[in-house]
Write a structure and sequence with these properties.
By secondary structure, the chain is an all-alpha fold. 75% of the residues lie in helices and 0% in strands.
Amino acid sequence: MSRILSILLMGVGGYFLFKKRFRFLNAALGNPLIRKIAVNAFMRIPGMRNRIMGSVFSQGPNPI
């Protein structure tokens, strides 16, 4: 019985976390330490660093 109850509570918690995911993400990334850890982890994904840096520092034509 307690196993069914714990599975049910995890499901309800997951549902509310999913519904409020952006509020949770904004609260978590509002902390500078957590934001720094998240950016470092994201930049370690293969190919992401090159893609992000390529879009930020594009090699377009230079206006004179």
